[in-house]
Amino acid sequence: MWFSKPVDEVLDAFHVDQAHGLSSADARERMTKYGENKLKGKPEKSLAALFFSQLKDMLIYVLLGAAVITLVIGDYSDAIIILIVVLLNAIIGVVQEFKAEKAIEALQKLSVPRALVRRDGEVREIDSREIVPGDLVILDAGRLIPADLRLTESANLQVEESALTGESVPSEKKARDIYDDPKTPLGDQSNMAFMSTLATYGRGEGVAVATGMNTEIGKIAQVLDADDEDLTPLQKRLAALGKMLGYIAIAICAVIFVVALIQRRDLFEMFLTAISLAVAAIPEGLPAIVAIVLALGVTRMSRIHAIVKRLPAVETLGSVTIICSDKTGTLTRNRMTVVHTYVSGKFADVPEKGQAECDTQDMKELIRTFVLCSDATYESGEGTGDPTEVALVVLGEKYRIQKKKLATINERVAEKPFDSDRKLMSTLNKENGGFRVHTKGAIDSIMKIADSVRIEGKVVPLTEEIKADILRAAETMSDQALRVLGAAYKETEQILQPDEMEKGLTVLGLVGMMDPPRTEVKNAIQKAKNAGITCVMITGDHQRTAAAIAGELGIASSPEQAISGSEMDAVADEAFNEKVNHYRVFARVSPEHKVKIVRAFQSNGNIVSMTGDGVNDAPSLKRADIGVAMGITGTDVSKGASDMILTDDNFTTIVAAIEEGRNIYANIRKTVVFLLSCNLGEIVAIFASVLFFWPVPLMPTQILWINLITDTLPALALGVDPGDPEIMRRPPRSADEGFFAGGVAFRAILGGTLIGVLTLCAFYFGLNEHGYGLWSKNIPENTLTYAETMAFVVLAVSQLFYSLAMRHSLQSIFRIGLFSNRYLAGAIALGMLLQYAVISIPVLSGAFHVQMLTMSDWLVVIGLSLVPLAVSECVKAVMRMAFEKR
Ligand code: ADP
Ligand code: MG
């Protein structure tokens, strides 16, 4: 039991040196022996299983039943066609589901957490799957524990173990504890850290004692494999719609059957007609197509650096009205450089490059404190760690105060880590036989815990006057959009508890660091504005710094639009809700304020997206409609709580993701409306002919065929329609707007009815050519087949053409470009080719009961097929004119 052994023994057992870690060769060898450090998910569905799951569908049973009946009565060609359709449907379904699943899987791989390990004597960040037993793993606040670890070091380390123990209060970890009782429960093993739990505070290091399925969580992983299907609200609504259409189809079938009985039609014929009508009416391909359109969209988004963790987020993205963004790193580059220092009442510039000398001892002390009170490292020109701290270590390098050297002489013995509530960090280091507390942080926070100040080598009381001077200096730097950090210290004889450190300090001075805004952000903010989205800055930084940058970026236009966390505290929630729309900059806020901000915006009917990176950001990320975590600087905790991860930490990506989200929703809508119009066309044609005692213009197998060529490729091609360049010039879609709002239902009904009526027209035209009418009795078989062929072609081709009308609800198709969606153009061409093949290849035409048409009739059917598209274009033109008049 590792928790009952001292650290040295554990390290020996794994043949690893604490300072050096494993060698790369060692790690490779262990990888082959122990395998990847990952929990096995649910077993993958095999292709065969996927295939058979496609057949578990009411509709398929009906079709198979029909196939059996046709076989029994000896209509072999119909039976074969039905079976082929069933088979093809299943195959298409499998391919779609497979693709969708793979896309989602690939995305999940992208969000595998990274881990810090010590190997070959240096700290490296690796994929947590590459950890092997014996690896020395470094932990800091916000990180997911990547394997089971026996801790070798801990500094105020706290771990939240609810994933394992159900206990949500973080437990304190101490590397030095040892438990003799072999039955010590997991929750009490304070010298261990377990895979899948979260470090919420402090730092630590541990040696991996178990990886993958050998870990404690691995032993119970099977329990966690419950497969949770994550349907989006739209998918749920569409499923309900599908069900409703199913019932309608059954009702229509029943009506047809009864009418046919009354009319004394051929019952078997009518039975098949009813079945094929059901096939036509039920949009059985719809869920699969929506799923794959979503999956493809999400894959596209990952290419523009936005990883969507939950599919429903795609839809919500399209309705976002407020983007709340962190400043540092998201709006700015997070490449901090110290440009000014302020000591003893004097500013000094820091040279951009090269070495410099400290003018005074005070300045040297200031820089020493900043360097010692940092966790960042700087080696051979590379900084690692928090950019703010890297900047400070780099500052030290410039003044020949090297962190590496200093840290060995003035060894750190205790610390109180930075958190964004206190906005302070302190360390206790050895100093001349005694100790010294080094504190750095926001200058207002420093002022609260300091009672003296060092001026020209002397420690003097911190009077109100000096305070005012320092604050003024800080403001001067803030107004230049600089991030200001203060430093303070105190001497002590003995080791202090963390709680004792931050009081009675002596202020040393300030530094101002530059963090230039990302150049592309300004355009993105303008783009969001055009799209009716408001951008808001939220930062822990000083109000003036924040306001200065917000002004540069076009987020705020006046200083009154900025409010600080303490001002927010002074207003009651309701009053704040009313005023919140007025503000664009929230400065000096802590994570709890973020929740208040999200709530306030939501109470005004906004759909809010909120960014976050720290451990404490989890509540606001969860509370926001779209929680956005930072991929590079974000903690695993924030990633876990988010809906979307930005792999480039860039604000611009949020706006791009919203645009994608809007386009994906629009495309799903196009697909659904298209499928419904097609189905409606088929229903209208058949239902009308039955009701009016006409011969039925379509054979059941023909309907199955048409569904096969229109419901698959063209529908899918519409789902990947190129984005509408105008989409970011429109206001966000209201979140409670129905799917059929804004004339969508009208378009489906108009198109469907037209397609149905034109099919009947073609049928009539065919009969009429041979001197018969719709009500004629004893129409010769040949004539009927000819007229049916015309109806068959019109039904198929008009649907193919009508798909073009779906591409935009207002713009003319010529404006958008007939070929700008190559997939759709290809799908239409292929559909027409197949349609022609069915008619012209004798084996097929025999099976489908169709004939070759004459040249002039081809012209007629093509002309009729163009009508729905043409009418829809006219309607759009009229609508455009109406819009322009307004
Ligand atoms: P943001 O990321 O929005 O700028 P933070 O919460 O990171 O806000 O920082 C808030 C304030 O805390 C900063 O303005 C700075 O004064 C202080 N601060 C930031 N990082 C550190 C750190 N590593 N150590 C001490 N103080 C810090
Ligand atoms: Mg920060």
From TrEMBL:
GO terms for cellular component: plasma membrane. It comes from Sporolactobacillus shoreae. It is an enzyme of class 7 (translocase). This is P-type Ca(2+) transporter. InterPro entries: ATPase_P-typ_cation-transptr_C, ATPase_P-typ_cation-transptr_N, ATPase_P-typ_cyto_dom_N, ATPase_P-typ_P_site, ATPase_P-typ_TM_dom_sf, ATPase_P-typ_transduc_dom_A_sf, ATPase_P-type_domA, HAD-like_sf. Its EC number is 7.2.2.10. The keyword rRNA processing does not apply. CDD domains: P-type_ATPase_Ca_prok. One of its GO terms (molecular function) is ATP hydrolysis activity. Its main location: membrane. One of its GO terms (biological process) is export from cell. Residues 162-182 are annotated as: Disordered. PROSITE patterns: ATPASE_E1_E2. Residues 1-75 form the Cation-transporting P-type ATPase N-terminal domain. It is a multi-pass membrane protein. Belongs to the cation transport ATPase (P-type) (TC 3.A.3) family. Type IIA subfamily. It catalyses: Ca(2+)(in) + ATP + H2O = Ca(2+)(out) + ADP + phosphate + H(+). It comes from the Bacteria. Residues 170-182 have a biased composition (Basic and acidic residues). The chain crosses the membrane at residues 47-73, 244-262, 274-299, 672-696, 702-720, 740-765, 785-802, 823-846, 858-879. It is found in: Cell membrane. Keywords: ATP-binding, Calcium, Calcium transport, Cell membrane, Ion transport, Magnesium, Membrane, Metal-binding, Nucleotide-binding, Phosphoprotein, Translocase, Transmembrane, Transmembrane helix, Transport.
